[in-house]
Amino acid sequence: MKQHKKELGKWIAYISIAIPLSLLLSRVLNNNKEILFWAFIGIMGVSGAIIRWTGVSDKKNNLLVVIQHIAFVSAITLFIWYLITFLF
After folding, report:
1. CA–CA separation, 54 and 14 (whole Å)
2. Where does the pLDDT of residue 3 fall: very low under 50, low under 70, confident under 90, or very high at 90 and above?
3. How far apart (Å, rounded) are the C-alpha atoms in residues 52 and 30?
4. CA torsion sign, 8 to 13 to 19 to 21?
5. What distance in Å separates the CA atoms of residue 28 and residue 59, rounded to the nearest whole number?
6. How confident is the model over 6-59, as pLDDT tens digits?
7. What is the rounded distance in angstroms from the CA atom of residue 41 to the CA atom of residue 74?
8. CA distance 4 to 19
9. How far is Cα 39 from Cα 1, in angstroms, rounded to an integer?
């Protein structure tokens, strides 16, 4: 039960960070600042590739944990931005 609450809290934190970031990303693209969008995509891609290369391991140092959080938040942010931009 504690593990479930811990995972739920982590996902709530991811989503609560991703919603303002997706609104900021939408605002950046509306102001024709595409370089910031591509920097965001680059950060997401590099962090995702690092996590993919390290695999699923329980013995990760703090840097890999931070990179994993960045990859999750970036992916959720991009998904929410897509929903905001193309569905509403």
Report:
1. 21
2. confident
3. 32
4. negative
5. 37
6. 888 889 999 999 999 999 988 888 898 889 889 999 999 999 888 888 876 667
7. 8
8. 23
9. 39
